[in-house]
Design a protein that fits this description.
The chain is mainly alpha-helical. The longest helix has 25 residues. It is elongated. The termini are far apart.
C-alpha cells in the first residue's frame, strides 16, 4: 500500500517540482543515511554520499517507475550504489598512486612512440556512432561502464557489448592480419 505522502512525492518528482527534494529529505534522509553508514563509516564521507544520492535522485526522478519498485526501494538502490561507487573510487585512488620519480613517461623519444596509434581519434570516427559514443564515454571522459549506462541511458549489457565490438573494430584497423 502506498502512503499519501509517497504519492505526493512521486507526483512532485514526475512533474520536476523541487518541493519533492525537500519532502524526500524530510521523510527518507535518515533511512538513506543509515544505508550509507553500513558501507561508509566516516560521517563526513557518508554525508557527501547522501548529498550525491539526492543529486542523482533528482537527476533521474523522471525515470522512476512505481510499477517496477516502491519509492523507498528505488531511493535505497541509488544511495546504496552511490556508496559502493564511492568506496570503489577511494580504493582506486589510494591503490593507484603515480610514482613520478620512477616514471619514464618524460624520457620517451618521439621515435619510440608508435605513430600508428597516435591517430586514435581519427580511427574512432570511422566506427559506427553507437560504438564511438561508448568508447568516448569510457576512455576519453573517464566514466565507468555503470556511469556511462546511466548517463547515456543505455542498458549496462549494451554498453559492454558495444565496447567489445568497438574495440574489436579498432583492433582490425590497427592489426589488420
Amino acid at each position: 500500500m502506498v502512503s499519501a505522502i509517497e504519492k505526493e512525492i512521486v507526483s512532485l518528482l514526475q512533474n520536476g517540482d523541487k518541493k519533492a527534494i525537500k519532502l524526500l529529505y524530510e521523510y527518507y534522509a535518515d533511512a538513506l543515511f543509515g544505508v550509507i553508514k553500513k558501507i561508509i563509516t566516516d560521517d563526513d564521507t557518508a554525508q557527501d554520499v547522501l548529498q550525491e544520492s539526492f543529486v542523482k535522485i533528482w537527476r533521474y526522478s523522471k525515470k522512476y517507475d512505481s510499477s517496477k519498485a516502491k519509492l523507498f526501494t528505488w531511493l535505497y538502490r541509488i544511495a546504496y550504489n552511490t556508496a559502493i561507487d564511492k568506496v570503489r573510487s577511494q580504493k582506486n585512488k589510494s591503490g593507484n598512486e603515480v610514482q613520478i620519480e620512477t616514471s619514464n613517461v618524460y624520457k620517451l623519444n618521439s621515435d619510440e612512440l608508435n605513430q600508428d596509434v597516435l591517430d586514435i581519434k581519427k580511427h574512432l570516427n570511422s566506427l559506427d556512432e553507437k560504438y564511438q559514443i561508448v568508447i568516448n564515454a569510457l576512455f576519453f571522459e573517464g566514466m565507468t561502464q555503470q556511469e556511462a549506462s546511466e548517463e547515456l541511458d543505455i542498458p549496462l549489457g549494451t554498453i559492454k557489448s558495444r565496447l567489445k565490438i568497438g574495440l574489436r573494430e579498432l583492433k582490425r584497423i590497427y592489426d589488420p592480419e
